[in-house]
Design brief:
The protein has 386 residues and is an alpha+beta fold. It contains 15 helices and 16 strands. This is Sister chromatid cohesion protein DCC1. Belongs to the DCC1 family.
Length: 386
Amino acid sequence: GAMRSRAEVDATLRTAKLNPAELLPVVHCLSFGPQAGAGECCLLQLEPGLCAELEAGRSLVIRGEKDEQAVLCSKDKTYEMKIADTSNMLLFIPGCKTPEQLNADQASCNVIHSQIAGFSNSYWELRRCRPKLKKLRKLLTEDPYEGPDSRKDQTLTFSKYTTEDLLSLIQASEEEILHQLQVIDACKIEGFWRILEFDYEMKLLNHVTQLIDSESWSLGKVPLRTCLEELGSLEPSKNPIYTGFCFSAGEVYFEMHEDKICRAIAQMLLQNAVKFNLSEFHEVWQQSVPEGMTTRLDQLKGLALVDKSSRPETIFLLKVEDLPEDNQERFNSLFSIREKWTEEDITPYIQDLCAEKQTVGALLTKYARSSMQNGVKVYNSRRPIS
């Protein structure tokens, strides 16, 4: 339509029984531009930190495959994206001036004609979430590395993942993915991230510990070069054993990682038994680790569980990484394994679910119900487990 004059604006105000003295003198007359459509634009609500990222020229990435709910990632954090509907229509007006700007600009003409470029009834809301990392291990365990001579590795058919591939497949930020690769002891072999196949890893460990034994080296000071030369025939020059079981103690020596080695040997022993008599297990376990190492049950957190209610007491394999990633499903699965848990027993199995600044206690309050049993606080399910 034709542009309104000031007189028409004042007439409209009188009809609406509004006192012009209570309003700003400047009037915006809005009209829809020729291209104004819904769905042309998306609004994203950012916290100040993320806004600063974009203003500094860094990018935010939306990740997820077709069947996954999209997440947004910065360099080091992951956010869930949810659509928030608004009851007020949101209008996009290019060059729109706020009341503060108009007050500062006294000389401005008092009727401004603006065109609406687009509108929306919703915006995307971001909520910080745990990175979805279970898939990372799943992808890498499809084709674990079984050594340079493995037949599978000489064919070209197995799944190989570079850092780039993982960034496009895993719903987590780059820093969270790289950190998780360390946690699961993945190593880069010929440019691809691989997890060592467990039996192969144990074979390597065995070779190294036998060598240490025959040379009478100290477990805390293994000469790197000599060790590599001795094992060179077994392994490509970059021996993957140095990722999982060793601390580098500089260029020249490395130190064997006692807790990790004891844990891996326990896993090997427990893998072949459904349940193991605890005292017998202790004995066999201590005999199986390299001389000079001491086995302790707390090395097995998140790997094995002791059943104190059975007579004699038993121990069995229960790996935290085999449990569901979703909070409620995780608790359901734990309560179906054991009806009542002490906080000490359940902690290693839910620790990784804690969001930023959240404690295990807070998680238990939300998903479990507590009671006293023989003077000990135990937790059971809030809902019947089918």
